[in-house]
Amino acid sequence: MKLSFILVLIGGVLGVACDDILEDSRLTTTELLRKYGYPAETHIVTTNDGYMLELHRIPNPGGQVAFLMHGMLSSSADWILMGPNVGLGYMLHDLGYDVWMGNARGNRYSRRHTNLNPNLSAFWAFSWHEIGVSDLPANIDYIVQHTGRSQIHYIGHSQGTTVFWVMASEVPQYNSRILSMQALAPAAYMHHTRSPYVNGLVMWLTSTTMALQVMGVHDFAPTDQMNRVGGQDQCRDGAPTQSMCYNEIFLLAGYNSAELNTTMLPVINGHSPAGASTRQMIHFGQVTRHRIFRQYDHGPAMNQIIYGQLVPPLYNLHLISSPVFLYHSFNDWLAAPEDVDLLHRRLPNVRVKHLVSMMEFNHLDFVWAINQRTLLHEHVIRNMRAMEN
Q: Is residue 158 annotated as a catalytic residue, yes or no?
């Protein structure tokens, strides 16, 4: 049996035909939606500090609003790139939700500013703190005004949960806008991370920070055309180098070959990494090293100028009054069960803490797994519906 025929069969079962793989790796979020027969809108939201963010919508006017926020180095595409039979964005729209998908400042869809050029270091002077205190409120204000809905469901993955903890503690009036917070692979405390990539960053955090500053490297660039083509060639089914592609994912997120659709690796590589500031990664490294959830550490002198104290302030999680639903997994190498337990104890209004039933489920399975609908999404939808009654 020819390999191409086998791939067509696999693609059809898992939601995206093999002939579409290379095309899907090149399409934008809205182009993917339209290709698969879904309506798509692009909205531009400007933050209070001038960043122009793309907000992607799968419209269901009048429907209950679901706002989805991606993780580190990702984009709105995470919620749909695995195809209509798998992606959470499609599922929510099919159930009648008005789906809005955010893009953090600095990713491929949000690299514009009213005054600053992305080639300037000043454009990149932010971590995920600014995404929490500026990007999320701007998006939520826009969605509420546009839809007339006073409350929305918030669904975040990884850094998409981190920025929510920042917003809900630093700008606590936004808690009243949240009907439910669905936190997938919640990231705040990272005492027990097992990823060698993160642990390597933590070990060499000071020297890495200094080296990036000296070299003038302020951002992680999104996948360009050359890397996209390289990913298509090296990560496709049948390529001798494909194992390198999925082992990179496993070394970051945890090993789970059963839930990774390797046929879709070129699509994943076409959309991720989607870009971010180096400060975002450094901030996570600081949280991991110091075993505390607090604002960005600029060094004692700058901390004194910015914060009025030598060390960064803690995030006061007790101010988060939104109803929170935590979804975590045993094999998550970034959001370890012990750290999710600590977060659970610190949050005052956790309604559910759900452990995914598959022991091997990893950090990126929350958005890319083959069976994410039955293992995860059905539980999320059930809890969302309960908050609407």
A: yes
Taking residue 19's Cβ as centre, other Cβ atoms within 10 Å add up to 11
- 158, 195, 272, 277: the catalytic one is 158
CA angle 128, 118, 306 (to 5 degrees): 45
- Examine the residue annotation and report whether 272 is marked as an active-site residue of this protein: no
C-beta of residue 140 within 8 angstroms of C-beta of residue 177: yes
Helix ranges (H only) for the chain are 3-14, 21-26, 29-35, 88-94, 128-130, 136-147, 159-170, 196-203, 205-215, 225-235, 242-253, 265-271, 278-290, 300-307, 337-346, 365-368, 372, 378-388
User: 81: exposed, middle or buried (C-beta count within 10 Å: 0-12, 13-18, 19+)?
Assistant: buried
DSSP 27: S
In the set 93, 218, 363, 377, the catalytic residue is: 363
Q: What is the pLDDT of residue 32?
A: 97
Whether the Cβ atoms of residue 324 and residue 167 lie closer than 8 Å to each other: no
| Predicted local confidence at residue 110, as pLDDT | 98
Q: With 0.70 as the threshold, say if the pTM is over it.
A: yes
Number of H helices, E strands in the chain: 18, 11
Judged against a pLDDT cut of 60, whether residue 3 lies above it is answered with no
